C-alpha cells in the first residue's frame, strides 16, 4: 500500500518558474538530478522533492527552485554554447557518448564560468564609462586626480584565471570523447589531424584555435608562475608625457605568446568573443563526428540561414544521401 508521502510525490503538480518580467521560458534539461530551465533572460534550477529526500522520509520537503544566472537565451554566449549543445547533442541523431549527461555538464560549467567573466566585463565597462564622464581636469591640492578602478590588477587576474578555467573545461570535453593527449592543445591538434586528416574541417578548426587556447593557458601561467619574462602588466588610468589621460591597459609578457600593450576593455571583449566562438565550433565538430546514419541517410551539421537563427543558435543537423547530396523529401 502506498503511503501518503508516496501519493503526494507521485501526483501531478504544476510549478511556475520565477523568470524575470517580460522573459519567455524556452526549454529545460537535467544534469545530476537537477532540472535547469532557460528563459530568454535567465537560467534557473529546480530540484524535485524526491531528489532532496530520495528515501521519502519527510513529507514536508517541497519542490524548490533557485535563480542561477542573470543571463539567458538572449545572451550570445548562452545561445552559442549551451543552446547549441542542446540543439546538436541532445537528440536522436548523435551517439550515446555525445548525448550523455557528461557532455552537457561540461558545457553547463563553461556557461557558468563565462557568466562570471561577463559580470566582470559589464561592470568594468560601466565603471569605465562613469569614470570618463566624470574626469575633472581641475587640479586639487596641486595635483590632477585621475580616475581609478578599484583592485584592477586583482580583478583582471581573476578574469584571466576564469577564462583559463573555461578553456580547461573545453579540453575536458575533448578528452571525454578521445582521451587525454600529450601536450594538451598541441597534442589535440596532432591527434585530430592523425584521426581525420589535415584537410578535414575539424583539423582546420583545431589548427586555428590551438594558438589562441595555448595563449589562454600561458596567460594563466603568467599569474601562477610569474617571472621577468612571464607576467601580466596592468595599468590603471594614467597620464602620459603627451598630456593625455589614457584608459587602463594590459600587456602580456611571455616568450611563446606575448601580447603587446592593449586597451583593457578591447582585450577583455576580444578574449570573451573568441572563446565563445571556439567553444561553439568545438560543439559543432564533435556533434558532426558523432552523428549516426539512419537507413540510407546520413546527417551533417549545417549553418542555418540568417533569417532562421533563433537565440544565437546558428547550426542544426540536416539529412543527406550517402553520396553527399542533400536529401529532398518526396513531394
List the helices and strands and how they pair.
Elements: H1 4-10, E1 25-31, E2 34-39, E3 43-47, H2 49-52, E4 64-69, H3 76-89, H4 101-133, H5 152-178, H6 185-196, H7 201-224, E5 231-235, E6 238-239, E7 245-246, E8 249-253, E9 259-263, H8 264-289, E10 297-303, E11 315-321
Antiparallel strand pairs: 1-2, 2-3, 3-4, 5-8, 6-7, 8-9, 10-11
Helix pairs in contact: 3-4, 3-8, 4-5, 4-8, 5-7, 5-8, 6-7, 7-8
Give an overview in words:
With about 325 residues, the chain is an alpha+beta fold. It has two domains: about 70 residues, no CATH class; about 200 residues, no CATH class. Helices cover about 45% and strands about 15% of the residues. The chain contains eight helices and eleven strands. The strands form four sheets. It has a four-stranded antiparallel beta sheet with strand order 1-2-3-4. It has a three-stranded antiparallel beta sheet with strand order 5-8-9. The protein has a two-stranded antiparallel sheet with strand order 6-7. A hairpin with a 5-residue loop joins strand 8 and strand 9. Helix 4 packs antiparallel against helix 5 and helix 6 packs antiparallel against helix 7. The protein is globular, with a radius of gyration of 24 Å. The mean pLDDT is about 90.
What is this structure, in a nutshell?
Helices cover 44% and strands 17% of the residues. With 331 residues, it is of the alpha+beta class. The chain folds into two domains: 1-71, no CATH class; 75-134 and 150-291, no CATH class.
Amino acid at each position: 500500500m502506498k503511503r501518503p508521502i508516496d501519493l503526494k510525490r507521485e501526483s501531478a503538480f504544476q510549478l511556475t518558474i520565477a523568470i524575470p518580467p517580460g522573459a519567455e521560458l524556452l526549454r529545460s534539461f537535467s544534469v545530476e538530478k537537477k532540472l535547469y530551465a532557460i528563459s530568454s533572460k535567465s537560467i534557473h534550477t529546480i530540484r524535485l522533492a524526491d531528489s532532496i529526500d530520495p528515501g521519502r522520509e519527510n513529507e514536508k520537503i517541497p519542490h524548490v527552485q533557485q535563480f542561477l544566472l542573470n543571463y539567458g537565451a538572449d545572451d550570445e554566449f548562452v545561445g552559442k554554447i549551451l543552446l547549441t549543445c542542446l540543439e546538436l547533442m541532445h537528440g536522436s541523431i548523435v551517439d550515446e557518448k555525445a548525448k550523455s549527461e557528461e557532455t552537457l555538464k561540461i558545457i553547463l560549467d563553461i556557461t557558468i564560468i563565462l557568466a562570471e567573466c561577463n559580470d566582470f566585463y559589464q561592470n568594468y565597462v560601466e565603471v569605465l564609462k562613469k569614470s570618463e564622464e566624470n574626469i575633472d581636469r581641475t587640479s586639487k591640492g596641486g595635483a590632477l586626480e585621475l580616475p581609478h578602478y578599484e583592485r584592477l590588477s586583482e580583478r583582471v587576474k581573476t578574469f584571466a584565471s576564469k577564462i583559463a578555467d573555461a578553456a580547461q573545461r573545453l579540453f575536458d570535453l575533448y578528452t571525454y570523447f578521445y582521451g587525454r593527449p600529450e601536450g594538451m592543445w598541441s597534442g589535440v591538434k596532432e591527434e585530430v589531424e592523425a584521426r581525420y586528416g589535415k584537410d578535414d574541417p575539424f583539423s582546420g578548426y583545431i589548427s586555428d584555435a590551438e594558438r589562441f587556447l595555448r595563449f589562454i593557458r600561458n596567460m594563466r601561467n603568467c599569474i601562477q608562475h610569474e617571472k621577468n619574462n612571464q607576467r601580466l602588466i596592468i595599468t590603471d588610468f594614467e597620464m602620459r608625457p603627451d598630456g593625455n589621460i589614457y584608459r587602463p591597459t594590459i600587456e602580456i609578457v611571455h616568450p611563446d605568446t606575448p601580447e603587446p600593450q592593449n586597451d583593457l576593455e578591447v582585450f577583455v571583449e576580444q578574449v570573451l568573443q573568441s572563446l565563445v566562438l571556439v567553444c561553439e565550433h568545438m560543439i559543432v565538430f564533435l556533434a558532426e563526428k558523432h552523428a549516426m546514419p539512419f537507413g540510407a541517410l546520413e546527417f551533417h551539421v549545417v549553418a542555418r540561414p540568417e533569417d532562421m537563427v533563433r537565440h544565437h543558435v546558428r547550426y542544426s543537423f540536416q539529412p543527406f544521401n550517402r553520396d553527399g547530396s542533400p536529401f529532398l523529401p518526396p513531394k
